[in-house]
Amino acid sequence: MNVRRLIPTAALAGAVALAAPALTACSGTAGADAGASPAGAAEGRLAVTASFYPMQFLAEQIGGDRVQVASLTKPGVEPHDLEITPKQTAQLGESDVVLYLKGLQPAVDEAVAQAGVKNTVDAATLTKLDAHDAGGDDHGHEDGHGEEAGHSEGDGHGHGEAGGDPHVWLDPSKYAEIAKGVGAALEKADPGHAADYRKNTDELVGKLTALDTEFKDGLKNTATKTFITTHAAFGYLAERYGLDQEGISGVDPESEPSPARMKELQERAKKENVTTVFFETLASDKTAKSLAADTGLQTDVLDPLEGITDKSQGADYFEVMRSNLKNLQKALGAK
After folding, report:
1. CA 255, CA 123: separation in Å to the nearest integer?
2. What pLDDT, on the 0 to 100 scale, is given for residue 33?
3. Where are the alpha helices (DSSP H) in 151-193?
């Protein structure tokens, strides 16, 4: 399946707690203000800092009331554009655990390296990363195996050369693999409560397995398998459920596609009976609406779940993923 967002295999590398600048309640919605000091240890809880929402959600779900979780990326901020303050960098060293995704946020990668936190989790080591392209001339992943390597497209996010797409959390099965690794990291950091972390991990993995089944059943029979999206973040989801992603702008949701790419998408939309152009909540819908207007298509939301805001179609990972499923079923003509 297709995704243009290419990141080095090390890219998905980090899923641990970054530092604990600001702590949030384990609500699963917005992260705490990254300017506060980690108080988890003082309260007898593990101070965990996550780089952005998908890592934060895992920490909250698995850690429960045993952890105090902070997110470096505030709600509404596009994770790729995150800048880390010197104060935040200094506070990273105060965290008990850091969860991040190496290669997705260069500023975070640099801050983690400088902080020297003992317990860090590299998400890329917890599951297999695949290279994806955004469609167009290269359909090398339509066999569903994702074996064909991609190349960097100069997206400006420092993702490096050929390598892996970092958006693994949009595949419930891969997200479950990462969850197991995060659970193991929390057990190691706080062995006295290992049984609690293990229990919570098992429950979360069970819910993710059920979500995977919902997607498989819900997208099994559709009128078309192709969907167009402004942000080429859905390669793993497409690959898992037999779909074909066509990204307008590749990795960078704010970049402008070329006239040739827009024409190519118009032709493909007609050929594949595409009905909908998807956009996301954290980026402009200008390009999606432009393409939709030129082709007579509808627009709808497909959320890459890089952050939760009051505009999100759900309050947490599971709610937004189910909204994504519903929107995909409608756009693809699920039977």
Report:
1. 27
2. 44
3. 172-189
28: left (phi over 0), alpha (psi -120 to 50) or beta: left
Q: What is the dihedral of CA 197, 200, 206, 211, to 10 degrees?
A: -110
Q: Residues 107-156: pLDDT tens digits?
A: 998 898 888 888 899 888 898 888 876 653 333 333 333 333 332 233 33
* Angstrom distance (rounded) from CA 300 to CA 324: 10
The answer to whether residue 327 scores a pLDDT higher than 80 is yes
pTM: 0.80
Per DSSP (E only), the strands in 124-239 are 226-229
Give Cα separations from 171 to 22, 208, 238, 239 (angstroms): 28, 9, 9, 9
Residue type, 330: K
Summarised one tens digit per residue, pLDDT across range 200-219 is 999 999 999 999 999 999 99
- Coil, strand or helix: which one is 71? strand
Closest CA to 301 of 291, 312, 316: 312
Distances (CA, A) of 263 to 199, 244, 291: 51, 18, 9
Alpha-carbon torsion 20, 22, 23, 24, what sign?
negative
- 123 sits in which H/E element: strand 120-123
DSSP secondary structure, 258-286, as one string: PHHHHHHHHHHHHHTT--EEEE-TTS--H
Compute the average pLDDT of residues 57-65: 98
Rg of the Cα atoms in the chain = 19
Q: Does residue 194 carry a pLDDT above 70?
A: yes
**Is 320 strand, coil or helix?**
helix
Which residues does 319 contact at the CB level (< 8 Å), separation at least 6? Answer: 313
**Winning range, highest mean pLDDT, from 143-147, 148-152, 271-275, 281-285:** 271-275
Whether 284 contacts 237, CB under 8 Å: no
